[in-house]
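re: that chain from earlier
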Amino acid sequence: MKEIVAVDNNWGIGFEGKLLQRIPEDMKRFTKLTTGKVVVMGLNTFESLPGSLPLKDRVNIVLCNEANREKILEGKDVRLCRSLDELMEMLKKYDSDNVFVIGGGSIYRLLLPFCDEAYVTKIDKGYTADTFYPNLDEDDDWEAVSEEGPSYYKGIPFSYVVYRRTRQLSEKYL
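^ sequence. v structure.
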């Protein structure tokens, strides 16, 4: 399983339910990497998608255990999981290399121990953020294995960094 995320200088990823910065080139990369794949997200991330509709040409899985909010998903082409165990059972149907976690913050943190790669767009700017991604540069279990960039959007530099897990997960995560 992989995670895909855009972070600022402080590893912030969002503020008040919105991305810190939308970069069209990064959105195209996200689409290219995830099309034809499985995307896993929380309900807030699903609701933040355009029109609160599933992403096209992907299997959309929403992890949500709030029964009163599940009605939002009724009639939409999404698969709902109400627990981590249910999600893990569902993901057995798919090649783990084709599964991308796309947010939000609590879903990233919950599933990072099960991932072996993270595709991180690093935006070289600090924003006001209330949601953060774990700083992989400070985590001995992860190493940057490739970097592209910088590119620029409205004068703001950003780079694509791929991180790979450096060692097997401990039993406490499995």
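Confidence is low (pLDDT under 50) at residues 170-174.
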